[in-house]
Amino acid sequence: MAQLVLTLAGGVLGGGLAGGLGQSLGALFGAYVGGILDRELFGPQQDRRPVEGTRLTELNLSGSAYGQTMPVVWGRMRVPANIIWVRGIREVVHTETETVGGGGKGGGGGTQTITRTSYHYYADVALGICEAPVTSIYRIWLDKTPLDPEHVDEIRTYYGDETQSPDPLIQAVEGADRTPAFRGLAYVVLENLYLTPYGNRFPNFEIEVYRGSRADVADARHLVRNVCLIPASGEWAYEPNVVRSRVRNSNINSNAGRKAADFAVSIENLKREVPNVEWVSVVYAWFGTSMDVATCSIRPEAEYAIYPDRLPDTTPYLWSVMGVGRPVIGGGGGWPLVSSYTNPDGSLGLYYGGTINDGSVVRAIQHLRSLGYKVMLYPFLMMDIPPPDPSPFPWRGRIGGAATNVPGFFERPDGYLRFIRHCMSLAEDAAGVDGFVVGSEMVALNRIRDGSGNYPSVPFWQQIASEAKAALGPECVITYAADWSEYRYHDRGGANVDFPLDAVWADPNIDVVGIDAYFPLTDVPRAVYDKAAVAAGWASGELIDYFYATQSDRDLERRGLDPQRSPIDDPFWAIKDIRYWWENEHVPRVAGVPTGPATAWVPRGKPIWFTEYGFPTVNCATNQPNVFIDPKSIESFAPYYSNRAVDRVVQRAAIEATEEFWNEPANNPTSPVYGGPMVGRRFVWCWDARPYPFFPALTNVWSDGENFRLGHWIEGKIGNMQLAEIVRDLCLRAGLAESEFNVTALDDEVVGYVVTERKPVRDMIAVLQTAYFFDAVERDGVLVFVKRGAGEPIMLDPNDLGASENDSDRSRVKVERTQDTELPIAVDVVHIDEGRDYQSSTVTVRKQVGQSESLNTLSFPIVLTVEQAQAIGQRALREMWQGREAVDLRLPTRAVRFDPTDIVEIPIDGVWRRVRLTAVTYGKPGLVLLRGIATDGGIPEFYTAPTDSGVLPPSVPEPVAPVRVELLDMPIMVDSHDASAPSFYVAACPVGTGRFRGATLFQPTADALDYVVAAVAGLPSTMGETVTELAAGPAWRWDRVNMVEVQLDYGSLQSLADERVLAGGNAALVGDELVQFANAELIAEGRYRLSRLLRGQRGTEHEIAAHPAGSRFILLDPARQPRPNFSVSRIGIEIAWRYAPVPQGPSGDLSGEIVFINTGNGLRPFAPAHLKAVRDPPSGDVQLSWIRRTRVGGDSWLNEVPLGEETEEYDVLIVNGANVVRTIRVTSQGTLYTAAQQTADFGTLPASLAWRVAQISRAYGRGTTAEALSTL
Question: Boundaries of each Tip attachment protein J domain copy (predicted)?
């Protein structure tokens, strides 16, 4: 008897199979696994126990209990982490004290002291993730929020291999002899984790982990040896170090939630996820402007222009190419900008990233070589030809024109030679490269032929090759990367054929023949996953055996319309037959007849490198690998017969088939000339320098992210696990030997699968079986896993049906049917959503017609797209309804050729029906009993149009922004502030687009050995600088003449009505002058023109002077600018303060220093007003008088304003020339300057008097002086 293994009782299975396999299967599968349809519809009631995967709610709960089961992960998954070690929580207390109130006449009035104490908690913790080893550890979530790198001092990751060493922190705390290495466990250590944002407790931890295939698995990620690195443009795309904008001071090239550049993160991922890569081809682009060689300019382009006052705009590097920077607004110069478009919200978008900064290219090459990679520099042209051109963003291979204009294309000041020589200089600056491409895919250019029959572009490629060899050395591999359609010959029509590139291939400075090898490998109207069929396409099929003249010929498979070339009897014409071209001389043809001498090509003389090859992740990719889907480009196409569905399996299968084919010596002969294989290195297009999954998800950063799903990118794709690998691993865990099972048919992709609880292996396989529709059957002592519906149906002889041992009249076919009302009308597929940051999602598939009201739920701890979940639901519902009929057959013994899982065709009620066999049983001699369920056979393809509905980008912690801090030595802003405090204000704002959590000001301790918190600015201030001069103006009344422009680092400004300004609104510090403004006109991003000013407010009239451009501008707001405690004894002393964004300390990587002297301006009395001097003629005495001003309550309408000082005292200073000749201390708002005093000071009674008066503060001393020149 043979039956589906996964529906057998273990005892029967063990007894029914010979030897160890039967015993192993009994142990593996026990009483039950899988067989969902057979079980649900026809299985015995006592055997209908459910098979459940891990409950999705369990995937979100972490813990700290000993003995917890560590998850087992295949592929990519977000799993709960278990706390496996922790060091005690540390408490940091922060206390702030503020005194408010006071003032009043004579300095009286009540005060109130407010003390605020906050508590901050930190801990060290180790988090166990899953069974190891794993390939990569990515993001960490705390209470569903991505871990902010600023909330932890250090993150150390351990991948769980057998050589793993103990963590140094745990070892230091616990001791070397008590610290395990946790080998076999993947874990992370978070050192000094800040717990306050999580309620001062340990949050729920989740970690994203990736476990790829084992090193001994010959799959795509292990077969690939060479990759092309893109995106080729983006000003800082290849920069290994973090670059920040000085305008916004945001991190430009750090978007992966780490304190590292995107490039460095991506290359780290490449190293771990495609571990056998040896060569990286760095693609580097400039921009072409025209498809005509006569007018095409080749140039760098920048992403944005800059105001001159905002330079330098980036740190630590400034963008430049060939020593030229970006254009300056109003100043000209710089490289032009890339083409842009306007988004629906009015913002500006870029069609391309700008040319990569020169220094970044150099550092990228050096970084790659330091990691052990060989580097090939691949210069590339992108055509920046935007709409409304009817052919926007075309392929460079279409650049053409007249032969007479070809030299200009190369030699003009903005021609190709300038570009390629600059590329050589970059390679030289990097201390060399291992390979260099002189040009690529210039098909139309290379087919321009002059009147003498020459190809004018060819000598230029030879010249460039010679220059490159001289510049980069003899060891550097030089090549031209020919399009797959141009490497061979140029058919000028009428079977007149030349070999223009043979002169390039034969040139002594060209080391290899470069081909961008996007040959069609299949030509059928369906996706091909059979690697043998794809591999065969390299040596047969379209462009070797035949070609199609038109699309209709392709649709009808008409391959014989051209008697000369289809079928291709003469391999001369077979452009995909690389071997024939490589092994033979090349003789031009006239009207199809070989004419003249052979070209300079030496048969087998040089190796061929695939400078590019690859496949998009779209249905039917192998039919037309060269096309891509990009809505903005005229070149956007889907492959022949593609339904545009995402298909990562076809990409992986095609890469594996290609690598395996060319690794086989029988397909790749050795040259007797150079002793190496015909096809050498093969560079897969492409790996991106922008790290997955942040690219493609962050479309607000990278606008081409929408092309990723269907494009040629391999990151996040070819590394996904194969179903076969997972089932193989599970069989091995159950104790089966490799020879006892076969999983080769299971070629589905599994993005991620997790088991978080102890359960039998049978149940783990059952979950996969339900999701991926496969069965298992024993054949010749081997457990064979079979995709359901695979294989061709077998038609049974009707005469064999109904056989019996005694020829009695038996029913030919017995059919048992389940009632429709017992079948589900709908299926819910609960899964982990790949597009929603691994959140649980449910897809419902409903049958449109039926009387049933039942609903089936399939719950999978498997990562799926919405489209994949819908396809699973559709197929499950379809199989349930098709399989409602069970069929029993009796056949003669010649039917023993059948196995369970086979599909047979039989007549039922006069109609031929298909039945999938579930059991084959030997009855009495001469009889075989078959049991099966109805099916339509085959593997159905369900396609749902992709949608972005509900798709979430990966969670990325918003980075902590650097902060700008200003210390404001100024009068108190509002009367409620303590006028007796010797303090100042702290203003802070974020620098850049990161999150502002506050800024901390740190004061050095008395011994200068440490720092303590002085103040925390919890809210950001509106801050910037003036960009024009603010001239002097009138005090205390509207300045209607002057205006000033300011550029804000943060915040925005608005105009206010006069009455709101007079009530204190729109007060700002410009330099050290307090200015108010009524009008704020936005004139550019972050730039305002301020007018209708009130000058010298709050006692700062002495600061009214010309403020130069670059003066600080701070919008004053007492809620945003705290005052630290400060000792009056330290007034006038230079102190080195430190500041940092919350939660960093004084030595954090974003901290800074301010050397500041608090002069105590907050205590400084204002200058008196209305100075008056009147001489008494009889006596000659002069009565001096003035009106005092107050720092507190001066805007009230009371007859007498508060004094604001402890006592009322003034100094009156009499001035003679440049000297003060008398100082009079008085306690009222006037004094008598006697005639005798005047004579003593001047020798006579003066006709005019220069004098000054200042109010005295016991804490501060003499305040601001008012001065008058009075005529007596």
Answer: 757-921
The string of pLDDT tens digits covering residues 1082-1106 is 998 889 999 999 999 999 999 998 8
The residue assigned the tokens 């039919």 is 623
Distance CA 1080, CA 1047 (A): 12
Residues 6 or more apart whose CB falls under 8 angstroms from that of 69 comprise 756, 757, 758
If one counts every other C-beta atom within 10 angstroms of the C-beta of residue 650, the result is: 27
Report angle CA 524, 526, 531 to the nearest 5 degrees. 80
Closest CA to 745 of 730, 728, 757, 761: 728
What is the per-residue DSSP string for 336-400?
Answer: PBPPEEE-TTS-EEESSPPPPPHHHHHHHHHHHHHTT-EEEEEEEEEE---TTSSS-S--GGG-B
Q: Helices 723-733 and 761-772: crossing angle, nearest 10°?
A: 160
Q: Is the pLDDT of residue 967 over 80?
A: yes
Query: What tokens does 953 get?
Result: 């980008």
The string of pLDDT tens digits covering residues 490-503 is: 999 989 999 999 99
pLDDT score at 47: 37
pLDDT at 372 over 90: yes
Dump the DSSP string for 180-202: ---TTEEEEEEEEEE-GGGTSS-
Contact partners, residue 218, CB within 8 Å, separation at least 6 = 656, 660
For residues 1229 and 1200, is the Cβ–Cβ distance under 8 A?
A: no
Instruction: Report the pLDDT value the prediction gives residue 1149, as an integer from 0 to 100.
Output: 74
As a whole number, the mean pLDDT across the chain is: 87
Distances (CA, A) of 661 to 217, 557, 656, 680: 16, 26, 8, 12
Give the C-alpha separation, 308 to 328, whole Å. 6
Both tokens of 1104, joined, read: 């009214």
Q: CA 727, CA 744: separation in Å to the nearest integer? A: 10
Residue type, 691: P
How far apart CA 764 and CA 777 sit, in angstroms, is 17
b/e per residue 587-620 (b: at least 16 CB within 10 A): ebbeeeeeeeeebebeebebbbbbbbbbbbbbbb
- Say which range, 309-318, 412-421, 1040-1049, has the weakest mean pLDDT: 309-318
Tell me the mean pLDDT in the region 186-198.
93
End-to-end CA distance of the chain: 132
What sign does the dihedral 857-863-869-873 (CA atoms) show?
negative
What is the reported pTM? Answer: 0.76
CA-closest candidate to residue 192, choices 158, 232, 150:
150
| 446's tokens | 């290379």
Query: Under 8 Å CB-to-CB from 909, ≥6 apart: which residues?
Result: none
The CA distances from residue 51 to 39, 419, 759, 776, in Å, are 11, 63, 10, 16
pLDDT digits (tens, 9 = 90+) for 427-476: 999 999 999 999 999 999 999 999 999 999 999 999 999 999 999 999 99
What is the rounded distance in angstroms from the CA atom of residue 1237 to the CA atom of residue 1231? 12
Radius of gyration for the alpha carbons in the chain, expressed in angstroms and rounded? 41
Burial of 900 (0-12, 13-18, 19+ CB in 10 A): buried
Q: Domains, the chain, ranges and CATH?
A: 2-53+720-787 (no CATH), 83-93+110-212 (no CATH), 228-338+347-401+427-457+466-530+576-649+666-707 (3.20.20), 794-895+903-935 (no CATH), 963-1157 (no CATH), 1169-1271 (2.60.40.10)
Distances (CA, A) of 564 to 126, 333, 539, 569, 598: 72, 58, 20, 8, 22
Contact 1167, 1264 (CB under 8 A): yes
Would the CA dihedral through 172, 174, 180, 186 be positive or negative?
negative
Q: What is the largest CA-CA distance in the chain?
A: 159
